Amino acid sequence: MSAPIPNRVHYHKAQRELELGYPDGSTYRLPIELLRVYSPSAEVQGHHPSEAVLQTGKRDVGLLDIAQAGRYALKLHFDDGHDTGLYTWAYLHEMATHREQWWQDYLDRIERAGASREPRVIQIHQG
To answer: What DSSP element (H or E) covers 89?
Structure first.
């Protein structure tokens, strides 16, 4: 069975969430941070699960653009410059329906790595 295709995609900029609406009336809201840290791109996922790169400092990431890629995916352009992942309808539906598990897995990995969701801030001192 193929994944359902959303008939409505809306970016809630203030909340940094992508809303997916489906023909059956179901809707899901995905945090942009979650979409970014689970980008299906090789840059993030690698070519094997052992090659995946933990994404850190993405709490405040937003979207610059959303484009449909053919009839099977969305291409998301993030404001941190990342834009290489194609989010298939199946991938988006899997993420939406398992959002809590994916989110907890991300938080656990951040904690194990001693990393942070907060963006890095460079302090500049002038003398």
So the answer is: helix 89-97
pTM listed for this prediction: 0.90
* Nearest CA among 49, 34, 23 for reference residue 96: 34
* Structure-block tokens of residue 21: 């609406």
Beta pairing partners, 21: 8, 27
Of the candidate CATH numbers 3.30.2020.30, 3.40.50.970, 3.40.718.10, 3.40.1360.10, the domain formed by 8-113 belongs to: 3.30.2020.30
Q: What is the pLDDT of residues 44-58, one digit of tens each?
A: 998 888 888 999 999
CB 95 within 8 A of CB 30: yes
What is the C-alpha to C-alpha distance for residues 47 and 31, in angstroms, rounded to an integer? 25
